[in-house]
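Need PD-(D/E)XK nuclease-like domain-containing protein's 3D structure for a figure. Predict it.
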Amino acid sequence: MSMTDSQGLPSSALVQEWLKTTFDMPAHDPTQNTALDLRPHRRTPSPTKRKRIETDGTSENEHREDDMVGQRYGETPRGSVPTAFVAAAASSSRTTRESDDVFSTISSNSILSGSSATSTTSSRASSPIKRERGMRYADDLPLLRRSLKDPRLPARLGPLLKDVRAVSTKKHIMPLALKEEIEALYSPFEAISDDMFFGGEDDEDESEDGHNQSKVVKVNDDHVKRHRDRLWQLGRICDGTEECSDPSRQTFEVEWNDVVHSPMLRLACRQQSSLRCRNLTSVQVDGRYGDAARTVRRGGGGAATATLCDCRIDFGIFLAPPENSDLQYRIFDLMSRDVDQVRQLNHLNAFEPDWPLAVSVETKRLAPGVEKASGQLASYGRAQLRLMQQFPDPQVEETREKEPAERGIRGGSETILPQLKVVSAQWELSFIVREGPNAVAYGPFDLGNTASLSGCYQVFKSLCILFRWAERECYDWWLRHISVT
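Structure prediction for PD-(D/E)XK nuclease-like domain-containing protein:
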């Protein structure tokens, strides 16, 4: 049979045979391509989830809720293949193979980085209830919680709480020299009464010789200017609180810190000559003093079966001793000693080792996860107590055998660490105290709310009183416990 016609073109029989052969072939199925693996793949878990699975043995079914939450935000459910991915895979197997290589490399690097991470893990690694139970049954410094009404409250806290409680009435918290300005700006929006103003002669937050004692000053232009600058700053904090509280806008914790929490802390901290406010969101706890390497007993009995994890907080108020002071000389002498001795005054990892921590601050916004703040502060305070117990009081050591333990606690030898928990606009004060082998948390005490101008003044005055007390308390404690060689 001739394969071509008279014009040299393929014959009709050959064309028909070619068409039959071409169109009778089965349709191409991209899923049959051995070079493509389109079977449902399990997503690579996040570092936090991977750590939780490795530590507590949580099954895959217990994490299905995370996938359901992810679907609400447009994430691909576990075990499903996106349609766009199938189409892209069918169009180019070579591209898919290259992508698989890239994904494999990323997954391997993620796993390696997770396995080589430090012992400090995120506070999200355990629920607040598990963390609280773990600290309660810890082998080292078990945590107890008590109310401020408890008769075992350290006597040294009585005058401080009395002064802070007086501020809660909002009496004499705003300067009389600025009464007309304050009423013109804020009285239409909040109730401002005459008893909220003080005469201007008594300025509690004035500093005298570095010891922050109250003194009487005469009202002058500089005095009024200073109060006007403070009014402007507190007004911005009040406006920032209103902006961040807008329910129609999404506001994250970092914005609360930028416009409300940090400005208030730094404003009050500047009233004390020896205090410094620092951001600690990226600072880890030193592994020698944290909970990560310590075990607990479940239910209070049996062998140690659970492990606690360390956490971080947002801000710290540190004591920076004045130059040429006795405490600075003792700290310099301590830092110059042998390497085998403790040469740091806080429990943080390579962060300002010559500055003792005076006040711990944890901030949150009103959102899921706010319940973790109390546990974070308790864990943080217990780590600081572990460091401070390495500096025994010489006077207490001499009289330990002569006096009962209860008398020693009431006599003022206990270690007291103030702590602040801030949830959006609400400020609360608590204390963690070392009493014998236990760490006892007392609190909370309401310091006020920054949603109003009078509330901002209340929080500011309360913080000034607290920071003044903490500066003096921290200075005296370290002066007693750092010996001179």
